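Example 3.2
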Amino acid sequence: MTQAELREVSSTRINDYRASGERVATWCERHQVTPRQLWYWMRKLKGEDEPK
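Structure, written as tokens:
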């Protein structure tokens, strides 16, 4: 998977989590990812949606 594909997947997961309204632990359990992974993606992609 390329970097661009990874960013797209991560961004989609973050948006899904935010739209769900669920707690981190609940969402992560349903999607079989660890909370640490979710927080990493959120930190890594923070600010990329903002115009420069």
